[in-house]
Amino acid sequence: MKKRRKICVVVTARPSYSRIKSALTAIEAHLSLELQLVIAGSALLDRYGNAADFIEKDGFKAATKVFMVLEGENPTTMAKTTGIGVMELTNVFYNLQPDAVVTIADRFETIATSIAAAYQNIPLVHIQGGEVTGSIDEKVRHANTKLADLHLVSSDDARDRVIKLGEEPRKVINTGCPSIDLVKQIENELELNFDPLQKYGGVGENIDWKKGYQIVMQHPVTTEFKSSRIHIEETLRAVHKSGLPTFWFWPNVDAGSDGTSNGIRAYRELNDPGNIHFFKNMEPLDFLRLLKFSKLLIGNSSVGIREASSLGLPVINIGNRQNRRLRAENVTDLPYSEMEILNGIQELYRRPLYTPSAIYGEGYSGKIIANILATTELSSSKTITY
């Protein structure tokens, strides 16, 4: 019997899990593959929603867990967290001896995965390279690309860009985005099949959401981290003044997240916004259900660019965090301005859905990725085609 390939996937943060969940399922089910799941970074921390709980509830078993996040949420702690990640993940890969390591997208911790694998001559697979955004994510994503040996990108636009970076065209494959697979799973549901307040608790008023609601997901921008509190206050005032029922999700662990979090806490205590309810996290499919039946998404999350595009959901994208990223017609870009955000809410909240877009895939990416990992030549050496 042919030996199964050991595929080590490192999940370092809450959003990374939804980006790879369908691929994890497909890898685990594939007869030629063995999944080695490593949960690390903020995915293990309660203050950021502890994605590990949802991962394990879904039936995935971690080969190991890596605690590597330093407190502080500033550029220095980001650099130190990454350094700890390199040291810890190097030992993990040495012990697991995988045939390939998978690093996901562009969060700052993912470069630790890439360095630890590449320096040990372990074939590195990068998911979602070739895209363009603002902040440190831009540098990290392209650095991951140059360290990686196989590139499984989410769009033709991203594939073209990775090839322009000098990567071999045959090693750059458009698989679509695995998060769209999850959207496909719930696309035919006709109503929200759970009560978010009862199931997930959260903090804030028991808002009357059943006649319509909006969602806010706003993270700090690492290159503008000193302004993160000012940025979040503009959005808070606009959403509060809108008076519309709102589910608001806690920020990621990036430089500036303390400013974002403190701004939310202070505003909540001083103004008691009766139309806003706050959550840390949800199971990926429940979050997508909540998104599907919402009226509007506000903030700067890539969810507005990816998943919302496949649902046709109107999105207000604030600031530079998703700068120049490939987007569908559902996205309206606005600055950090209370009045412009409020006007955008009033204009878009009752707007009909846009035509769903397939720019990030048709919903079969997980199986495509697993088949590629099972059949493609895996090598830690590469030819640059400049």
Considering the chains and any ligands shown, give keywords for the structure.
14 strands; seven-stranded mixed sheet; alpha/beta; Rossmann fold; globular; 386 residues
Short structural summary:
This protein is of the alpha/beta class and 386 residues long. Helix content is 40%, strand content 16%. The N and C termini lie far apart (41 Å).
How would you portray this structure in words?
There is one protein chain. With 386 residues, this protein is an alpha/beta fold. The chain folds into two domains: 5-177 and 361-375, Glycogen Phosphorylase B (Rossmann fold); 185-348, Glycogen Phosphorylase B (Rossmann fold). Helices cover 40% and strands 16% of the residues. It has 14 helices and 14 strands. It has helices at residues 14-29, 51-57, 75-96, 110-118, 135-147, 156-164, 178-186, 196-200, 228-242, 257-271, 284-292, 307-311, 338-348, 365-375; strands at 5-11, 33-40, 62-66, 100-104, 124-127, 150-153, 172-174, 203-204, 214-217, 246-249, 276-279, 296-299, 315-318, 331-334. The strands form two sheets. Strands 3-2-1-4-5-6-7 form a seven-stranded parallel sheet, with helices on both faces. A seven-stranded mixed sheet has the order 8-11-10-9-12-13-14, covered by helices on one side. Helix 12 (307-311) links the parallel strand 12 (296-299) and strand 13 (315-318). Helix 1 packs across helix 7, helix 4 (110-118) runs parallel beside helix 5 and helix 9 (228-242) runs parallel beside helix 10 (257-271). The termini are far apart. The mean pLDDT is 93.
